[in-house]
């Protein structure tokens, strides 16, 4: 092949300098068009096949069973309340009908606008809790203007004044948790004989097994966090359990206030996402007695952090996230208790509930989750 050298050859090759970048841009655009996300589930091989203590599936049929249909744990005169933060964004009542129709997403037999699918996810969050832990209650912390209209048993909406903008949502969530714990601490002084434990979670989780055993099996912690073997972000803030005693609530409140202080001083650039997790990790890691090597093993452990007794629970069981592609991770533990449909996995959460409500088998539903392919995520 002749090389382009000299002025004549340079002038001959000059058009290629302008043409090639344009050609690559067109190819990139074509690839993006072809990689459009599918609007339905795409099933593939379930990760973890053949591994011990992992869910084994044949298609979407579970070979080994994970959970008993009625595994509700009694903790006497104690109860559990799930607490989540939820606010409606961009929900102007003057939204044009055409704008709504152009934004619809269909899941099963239902079509949702952005606001409607957010509400659908919130309702599915409640559905799973009420099926797996029917004696528990749900408290939704929201802003002063969102009209959630949640007319459901054992569900309460509690407006808390704060800034619920998307840009500061994670910061506001910590502030709302602290405000909630302050009110509960005041109320506790007027109550006798009954204790309500609290589990603060994102609203995109599915509780698939009873969580009462946390408070029953581990009696000395004030708050519990979930961890994973991730050097940059070892803690996930989507699940925080608080013991409902006066000491537990006080210690948890003080701990979260420290997290908020670190968040506000060090991680405001990440206030929309991840800032709370980075602040959580900083508070834990800065304790001189803490050994971060404990994060490498998916085993429960207890540590004293700044005056609080903190229980560390492995994400693999208490905050498991569906894989983003076939073969990722090492499958699903048989004793998984919480599935977190974070990020763009929201469709899968709705699909999972539709499947479970049709067939009533939690193990088969988990096979559906485990076998789902990345291409189906669209919101």
TrEMBL record:
Keywords attached to this entry: Signal
Signal peptide: 1-25
Protein name as catalogued: Nucleotide-diphospho-sugar transferase domain-containing protein
């Amino acid at each position: 092949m002749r090389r382009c050298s000299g002025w004549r050859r340079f002038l001959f090759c000059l058009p290629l300098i302008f043409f090639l970048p344009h050609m690559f841009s067109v190819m990139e655009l074509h690839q993006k068009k072809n990689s459009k996300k599918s609007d339905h589930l795409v099933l593939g091989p379930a990760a973890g096949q053949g591994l011990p203590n992992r869910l084994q599936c044949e298609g979407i049929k579970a070979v080994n069973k994970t959970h008993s249909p009625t595994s509700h744990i009694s903790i006497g005169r104690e109860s559990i309340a799930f607490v989540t933060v939820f606010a409606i964004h961009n929900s102007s009542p003057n939204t044009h009908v055409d704008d709504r129709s152009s934004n619809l997403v269909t899941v099963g037999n239902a079509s949702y606008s952005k606001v409607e699918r957010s509400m659908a996810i919130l309702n599915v969050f409640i559905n799973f809790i009420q099926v797996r832990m029917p004696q528990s209650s749900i408290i939704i912390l929201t802003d002063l203007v969102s009209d959630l209209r949640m007319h459901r048993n054992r569900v309460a909406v509690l407006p808390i004044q704060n800034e619920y903008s998307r840009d500061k949502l994670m910061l506001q969530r910590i502030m709302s948790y602290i405000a909630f714990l302050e009110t509960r601490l005041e109320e506790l002084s007027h109550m006798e004989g009954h204790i309500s434990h609290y589990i603060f979670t994102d609203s995109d989780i599915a509780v698939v097994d009873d969580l009462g055993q946390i408070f029953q099996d581990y009696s000395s912690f004030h708050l519990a966090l979930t961890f994973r073997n991730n050097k940059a972000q070892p803690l996930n803030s989507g699940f925080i359990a608080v013991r409902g005693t006066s000491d537990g609530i006080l210690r948890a409140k003080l701990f979260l206030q420290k997290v908020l202080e670190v968040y506000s001083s060090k991680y405001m650039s990440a206030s929309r996402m991840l800032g709370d997790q980075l602040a959580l990790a900083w508070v834990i890691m800065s304790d001189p007695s803490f050994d971060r090597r404990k994060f490498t093993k998916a085993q429960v452990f207890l540590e004293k952090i700044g005056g609080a007794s903190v229980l560390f629970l492995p994400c693999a069981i208490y905050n498991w996230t569906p894989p983003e592609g076939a073969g990722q991770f090492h499958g699903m533990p048989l004793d998984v208790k919480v599935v977190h449909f974070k990020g763009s996995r929201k469709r899968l959460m709705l699909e999972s509930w539709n499947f479970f409500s049709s067939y009533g088998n939690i193990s088969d539903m988990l096979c559906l989750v485990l076998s789902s392919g990345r291409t189906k995520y669209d919101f």
